[in-house]
From TrEMBL:
Keywords on record: Membrane, Transmembrane, Transmembrane helix
Start and end residues of each stretch annotated as Disordered: 921-944
Low complexity bias (residue ranges): 924-936
Membrane spanning residue stretches: 247-271, 283-301, 358-378, 437-458, 465-482, 521-545, 551-571, 621-647, 654-673, 685-706, 713-733, 893-914
Superkingdom in the source lineage: Bacteria
Protein name, as recorded: Glycosyltransferase family 2 protein
One Pfam family linked to the record: Glyco_tranf_2_3
PANTHER family reported for this sequence: GLYCOSYLTRANSFERASE, SLR2126 PROTEIN
Higher taxonomy: Bacteria, Bacillati, Actinomycetota, Actinomycetes, Micrococcales
Organism of origin: Lacisediminihabitans changchengi
Length: 944
């Protein structure tokens, strides 16, 4: 007797495919006996198309998965009419070839033990490519396709046995389908057919592959009823299916362990997803874990298996994929992805080699220049002067100053650290045996590191192989860098070193999660070192985001680490009504004369035109001579930057020139904002970092111009390089002038006697009195061996009013420095002051003399003598220099929240930034034919 076949055709928003599928079913050489059409909640004309085909029965349901729709069709459809009845399951996109049903029936007729037969699914858009042919799972339960994405050359036609087949096109005995309970409701799409096939195998039936039967497919099971499914959603569905099957298939004794491990495993897998540059899959890991743990359905599925199982799990072991095959599959997939990415990657890497085209030699040249220019500090262990102080003695002390806690400035207060404290902690931890030496090392390596960063960044945006060397020279000798080094502005130096790397990372960020994460870390470090740059850099980030809408997921979160660093400080400054204080330069406030706009336009961050005013005076040049010389030396760079607007490809120069304009505007505005106080003077924001941004934009435009001017490029580049070298000469020689701002330190600020006392009593206070103009004194209270750079806080330097402790300290200083007759013993004890230092007069001799006499006459004090820091007195009363412990950055709930929050943000960003993909081999071309820049960061095929 001929087998009876009922087609169950399920459609959901598949009107575009239904016509072809219905025609293909009607054209079968072996006509089905009945057709039950199911419209599963379509929003298009699918229901009308199904009705027009005059099926045996039309079923309309709400939107639901394919398996549930099949169940509904069997519930309301015609009852079984024979024992030998088969169901042919088709979706709206499954158009079978004319002999497909006949081939399937032939396969099951000759093998009575076969209860499920699967056709060869072919891609709808590529009919000669196999979409899927057989399913299996690994030793650890991960599902896998036996064949997918291969050109059909009959190479797999010898296969006739498999662990599972796809639901689409499946021919299944109706009695078996009913006995097994159909598809598992806990598996709505991915792995539903595999699970059903496994249960059939465990019930004693076979699952066969029928290579002669071909059915088209427009996509995998998870795309049923959807136009597309994102990679992250697909990963979440697949992980949920794997976890569900793990709970269903596991032995009863292991079930509690598997259930308890769901969330911990999700945490570790989330870290793995970040390392694999798939952050979009992180949420899916936790979503799948919680859904598997709490949505139910596992116990019912386990009961169904227990009720129908006739053979043990060992019976299906030979059909699982072996570990060797798994490794081979992964290797093939990786190679295919790399080949596809290499083929589709537009950019070709110029042949500019780091050694062959001057990169290494520019770094060596910069190192030689640095060794000569910084000769007086080559043997230094610490640096002082300008904005510099030694760092704390151990990395532990450095890290204790980050976050939210006690700030030992003035009378002390509890507050947020400057974000720069993190930068100093990292810098000092590099030379952990002597943290202050980290600053010295950075100074000595500043020029070669500048050359290194500029060379790689320039290679990314230029096609001529020798241009990166020119960019490296211009960036290394930038007046903003040299003046920041000479003035002790460490934050501006660090920002200058990192800006080229930020450009390099940002250019790769639209294609690479690692580059995006690196951009985020660099932006945070630059913003922490030079807060004045934050507004301009955020504008640049937003413009980059808007211009790359396809990469919005990668680019949108770049400012998050920066926001995490600044958030506690932002809250406090806003609460104090001083939001402009956020722009203050971190470190020791440095006062100075305001720099005019025209001097800033000439690249000078401070009055004096970067040393040329003094040089012109020494050469007896006219008053305007220095400005004329500097303008003439800058003219080649400025002219080339403007020329970039009028050469072929001038559009490439616009971002650079806009960046330069923002840098100049930032320098002008910032130099006129007085937010910090140092003694009786105000300190405006150092414009050096903003001028570095200005100079960066100019160099970018210069590269565009030199790329386009043909044979004139070499002489123009040489001219710009020579004039830049000449321009830098006064700044390079600044360290050899009398009384340079930055000088070698001995690792301490206060006298050795105080440092020795601080070893036993770290909280000992020292009142430092500095004579000032107008008969006044500047009073500073320092703890232990003296203030360090990581002690500094912009909350203290930008305070809009003197706190109560500050007023009390001022009163105490006034009474000590004058013969008032007031007993100062109580106030000294209140501040735990053990020593008093009176610094040298420096032109204020009368003030110094009066204060010295008053201190000598105070019975509470005993003169120690003259020290390198000035005159020193010791407080007579023993036990004064003791104080109760103050809250550290982990002693308060808010401090712990800040550290944990910032740690999570930076931990995840670091994981995402770690390169894990193997670098692809790229085609190289000569500099004369290269038309596109290098891609330095790896492009990734990810799910995020």
């Amino acid at each position: 007797m001929q087998a009876r076949v009922t087609v169950i055709l399920v459609a959901r928003n598949g009107a575009a495919y239904l016509g072809r599928t219905l025609a293909a079913v009607a054209a079968q050489t072996r006509r089905p006996d009945a057709i039950v059409a199911v419209d599963a909640g379509s929003a298009d004309s699918s229901a009308d198309s199904l009705a027009a085909s005059a099926p045996t029965q039309l079923v309309t349901t709400r939107a639901q998965p394919f398996g549930s729709a099949v169940e509904r069709a069997l519930e309301v459809g015609p009852p079984p009419q024979s024992e030998d009845e088969w169901l042919w399951l088709l979706a709206h996109d499954n158009a079978p070839e004319p002999n497909a049903l006949a081939e399937l029936l032939a396969a099951v007729e000759i093998s009575p033990s076969v209860a499920i037969a699967g056709p060869k699914l072919m891609r709808l858009d590529q009919p000669d490519v196999i979409a899927e042919f057989g399913e299996t799972m690994t030793r650890y339960g991960s599902s896998a396709l036996l064949v997918d994405g291969e050109l059909d050359q009959a190479q797999h036609d010898v296969q006739d046995d498999a662990l599972g087949v796809a639901a689409n096109g499946m021919l299944v005995r109706r009695s078996v389908f009913s006995a097994l309970g159909g598809f598992d409701p806990g598996l709505p799409s991915i792995d539903a057919a595999l699970d059903f096939s496994i249960r059939a195998r465990l019930a004693g039936y076979r699952v066969a592959l029928v290579p002669g039967a071909k059915v088209s497919s427009a996509g995998p099971a998870e795309t049923f009823g959807r136009r597309s499914v994102s990679g992250s959603r697909r990963a979440r569905i697949a992980r949920g299916a794997q976890l569900h099957r793990r709970l269903v298939y596991s032995p009863a004794a292991a079930l509690p362990l598997h259930w308890l491990s769901l969330v911990p495993l999700a945490f570790f897998r989330a870290i793995g997803q970040i390392l694999a540059k798939r952050p979009g899959s992180v949420g899916g890991e936790f979503g799948a874990a919680f859904a598997s743990a709490f949505t139910g359905g596992v116990l019912g599925a386990r009961r169904r298996i227990r009720r129908t199982r006739r053979v043990g799990w060992g019976a299906i072991a030979p059909l699982r994929m072996s570990p060797r095959d798994v490794r081979e599959r992964r290797l093939q997939a990786r190679e295919a992805a790399n080949n596809a990415a290499t083929t589709s990657a537009a950019p070709m890497e110029p042949v500019a080699g780091f050694v062959a085209h001057g990169g290494l030699w520019m770094v060596v040249l910069a190192a030689v220049i640095a060794a000569i220019a910084l000769g007086p500090i080559l043997s230094a262990q610490s640096l002082v002067g300008g904005g510099l102080l030694p760092l704390s003695g151990t990395p532990g002390e450095l890290w204790s100053h980050v976050g939210y806690g006690w700030r030992e400035i003035g009378g002390g207060f509890v507050g947020a650290s400057d974000p720069f404290a993190y930068v100093l902690a990292v810098l000092g931890s590099i030379t952990f045996w002597s943290p202050s030496f980290g600053v010295v090392l950075l100074y000595l390596l500043a020029l070669p590191l500048s050359a290194l960063g500029a060379w790689f960044a320039a290679r990314r945006v230029s096609s001529r192989p020798w241009l990166p060397a020119i960019a490296a020279l211009l960036w290394t000798l930038a007046p903003s860098l040299l003046s920041s080094l000479g003035g002790g502005h460490l934050g501006a130096v660090i920002a200058h070193l990192l800006l080229p790397w930020l450009v390099l990372a940002a250019l790769g960020a639209p294609r690479s999660w690692a580059a995006a994460a690196t951009s985020a870390l660099l932006l945070a470090a630059i913003g922490a070192s030079a807060p004045i740059l934050v507004p301009a850099l955020l504008v640049a980030w937003f413009a980059w985001l808007v211009s790359r809408p396809a990469a919005v997921l990668r680019l949108i979160a770049i400012p998050v680490p920066l926001a995490a660093l600044f958030a506690p400080l932002v809250i406090q400054q806003i609460q104090r009504g001083n939001p402009l204080g956020l722009l203050a330069e971190p470190g020791v406030p440095v006062s100075g004369a305001e720099t005019s706009a025209w001097q800033l336009a000439l690249g000078s961050a401070a009055p004096g035109l970067d040393g040329w005013t003094g040089a012109a005076s020494a050469l007896s040049l006219p008053g305007a001579g220095a400005a004329i010389v500097v303008a003439a030396l800058l003219l080649p760079v400025a002219a080339l930057a403007l020329l970039a607007l009028f050469v072929p490809g001038s559009r490439r120069s616009i971002p650079s020139l806009v960046l330069a304009l923002m840098g100049f505007a930032t320098a002008v505005i910032g130099s006129r904002i007085d937010v910090a106080v140092t003694g009786a003077s105000v300190a405006s924001i150092w414009p050096g970092a903003a001028l570095s941004l200005f100079w960066l934009g100019l160099i970018g435009a210069v590269l565009v111009a030199l790329d386009a001017v043909g044979r004139a490029a070499i002489p123009l580049a040489v001219l710009a390089s020579v004039t830049t070298v000449i321009l830098a000469i006064p700044l390079l020689g600044a360290q050899y002038l009398p009384n340079p701002t930055v000088r070698e330190g001995d690792g301490r600020i206060l006298p050795a006697v105080v440092a020795a006392e601080a070893d036993d009593h770290p909280a000992v206070g020292t009142l430092v009195l500095t004579p000032n103009a107008g008969g006044s004194l500047i009073a500073q209270l320092e703890r232990g061996a003296g203030a360090t750079l990581d002690d500094q806080s912009t909350l203290g330097s930008t305070a809009t009013s003197l706190p109560r402790s500050g007023r009390s300290l001022a009163d105490l200083a006034g009474n000590l420095a004058s013969q008032s007759g007031l007993d100062t013993k109580k106030e000294l004890a209140k501040f735990s002051i053990g020593f008093v230092v009176l610094t040298p007069a420096d032109g204020h001799r009368e003030v110094h003399q009066r204060a010295s006499e008053a201190l000598d006459g105070n019975p509470v004090l005993a003169a120690v003598g003259s020290t390198s820091s000035g005159l020193l007195w010791r407080v007579n009363e023993p036990g004064i220099a003791t104080t109760a412990g103050q809250p550290s950055n982990v002693d308060s709930a808010w401090g712990r929240v800040v550290l944990i929050g910032q740690g999570i943000v930076f931990g995840l960003t670091l994981l995402l930034g770690i390169p894990t993909a193997r670098r692809r081999r790229r085609t190289t071309v000569s500099g004369s034919t290269a038309t596109a820049p290098a891609t330095t960061f790896e492009e990734e095929d990810d799910n995020g």
